[in-house]
Amino acid sequence: MMKNPFDPQQDPGLYSYVNLQKRMLKNVQAARVNDQIFNVIQKTFEDALKHEVIVLSGPEKKRMLAQIMKQVLSDMLSKLDDNSKS
Q: Is the pTM of this model over 0.85?
């Protein structure tokens, strides 16, 4: 069982908040979460184009996907900020 990472008795170099954050980030990155999120949004975008029978050129599709991806990620961050206020 892992001890409390913020316990003052622990080695501050190993269990500092910043160190903990770095370790958690490595775990998330190792799980390839970024790729998973990207793939879900890309597939949903492609499915929506097919459903609406919309044909875009490669550059148009890439630009629109990038804009939608930015908006989705911005919305996710906004929700995170909203949840931290409650």
A: no
Please list, in sequence order, all residues whose beta carbon lies within 8 angstroms of the beta carbon of residue 38, skipping any fewer than 6 positions away. Answer: 69
The parent domain of residue 66 ranges over 32-85
Over the stretch 37-59, which tens digit does the pLDDT of each residue have? 999 999 999 999 999 999 999 99
Q: Which amino acid is at 8?
A: P
Helical residues (DSSP H) of 1-86, grouped into ranges = 12-15, 17-30, 33-51, 58-85
Chain mean position to CA 33? 7
Mean pLDDT of 6-24: 74
Number of domain units in the chain: 2
Cα Rg of the chain (Å, integer): 19
